[in-house]
Specification:
The protein has 394 residues and is α/β, with parallel strands linked by helices. It has 16 helices and 12 strands. The strands form 3 sheets. It has a 5-stranded parallel β-sheet with strand order 2-3-4-1-5, sandwiched between helices. The protein has a 5-stranded mixed β-sheet with strand order 8-9-10-11-12.
């Protein structure tokens, strides 16, 4: 089996040598299973077993009330628990009692577990409480732009944000087509590898359908999945805007408590991310409302109604959130800075930018005592100091 390079893989491989349970969590179809199979293939542990809990026979095995029966069944398959054993289990949320099973086996035998789950809510609450100190969680997101390039056989050097200010025309020409694809179709591995636009769009629709019908339905009593899909479409045309629950309630006809519950589920399960406002003077600034972004641009485009600028801003969000904590800044007058990274660097996002955009950002950043400001652009019509072409942010 051929494996593609993922930025998180070295950390996962390093953790393979530790006793703790290695836990991969993230939205389905972000590549968790492929990463697990790569870890299995490259592990030095001789005895290796893989179980997909979407298979009923595997689910029944790990649902055994007597945990020693699981050990017996595995010895019947040739396992020798007098020596170290590697056991990988996919989609652990499908067996409700599995945390107790893992705890018993972890404490009793020399087993290295690698497990995956599609729900942050489950993994970080019910799952975490019962395995305190026995596991480490790794969040698996859709591909970054650098990973998308790697999947397409395009090599790029690792460069710091400071060095992205240098505009190289040849490099822009080499990467711009890939960057447009990233903006429009996102980073789910199978979407990236699909050759036609039609296939990419079909896969994105299939991913969102399986997300609603399997991942979310498993965790919550959603009586009308169509309502959740309607909400997701409405959110996709509100990228980069402040969440207005009252407005969403009015547009959908769904009660406010239900909308709030849905928003929490969507964020806990990797579809959306909200970012806070950075505030130094509450009397002059908007201090409560959070802005919304999607953790994949393909999903963000499902309504077909999200503006070109909004999708570009969403792509930049996904490029930056891997690099640190993201917030935004806004005065009551409406003037704002799109992104603030780790409270010490400002970014304004404009498809076609000029010096005035940078000047405005610098002026606002003075309120926060932040010195470093850049404008991130999509179309490098005009180049100036402080300008970064979005595709150079790997």
């Amino acid at each position: 089996m051929n494996f593609y390079n993922r930025a998180i893989y070295p950390s996962l491989f390093d953790h393979l040598g530790k006793k703790q349970i290695t836990v991969l969590t993230g939205m389905r179809r972000t590549g968790k299973t492929t990463l697990v199979k790569q870890l299995i293939a490259e592990s030095s542990i001789a005895q290796k077993y893989y179980f997909d809990l979407e298979r009923m026979d595997n689910r029944l095995l790990f649902s055994e009330p007597n945990y020693e029966t699981i050990i017996y069944a595995l010895t019947q398959q040739g396992a020798n628990f007098g020596e170290k054993v590697l056991i990988a289990i996919d989609e652990i949320q499908l067996v409700p009692n599995l945390p107790s099973v893992l705890k018993y086996l972890y404490d009793t035998y020399d087993i290295k577990f690698i497990v995956t789950g599609s729900s942050a809510y489950y993994m970080k609450n019910m799952f975490s409480e019962s395995l305190a100190g026995r596991k480490k969680l790794f969040d698996i997101y859709p591909l970054s732009f650098a990973e998308l390039l790697s999947f397409n056989g395009v090599s790029v050097p690792e460069i710091s944000l400071d060095k992205t200010e240098k505009f190289v025309r040849a490099e822009y020409e080499r990467l711009k087509g890939y960057y447009e694809t990233y903006i429009n179709y996102g980073g789910f591995p199978e979407v990236v590898l699909a050759e036609s636009v039609g296939d990419k769009k079909d896969m994105i629709q299939d991913i969102i359908s399986s997300y609603i019908n399997f991942d979310i339905a498993l965790l919550s009593d959603i009586r009308n999945p169509a309502n959740l899909y309607k909400l997701i479409r409405l959110l996709s045309v509100r990228i980069g805007t402040k969440l207005d629950v009252s407005k969403l309630t009015s547009l959908t006809g769904i009660s406010r408590p239900t909308i709030e519950n849905y928003l929490d589920l969507l964020e806990q399960n990797y579809l959306i991310r909200t970012i806070p406002v950075l505030s130094k003077s509450p009397d002059r600034e908007i201090t409560k409302a959070k802005k919304i972004y999607f953790l994949d641009n393909g999903i963000a485009s499902i309504s077909g109604e999200a503006g070109s600028g909004a999708l570009f801003e969403n792509a930049v969000f996904n490029q930056l959130h891997h690099k640190g904590a993201i917030a935004y800044y806004q005065l009551k007058s409406g003037k704002e800075i799109d992104f603030i990274l780790d409270q010490n660097r400002c970014f304004e996002v404009k498809e076609t930018a000029d010096e005035s955009d940078l000047k405005n950002a610098i002026s606002l950043a003075e309120n926060l005592d932040i010195k470093k400001c850049n404008v991130i652009g999509r179309h490098p019509v005009k180049l100036f100091d402080g300008y970064i072409w979005g595709g150079f942010i790997h």
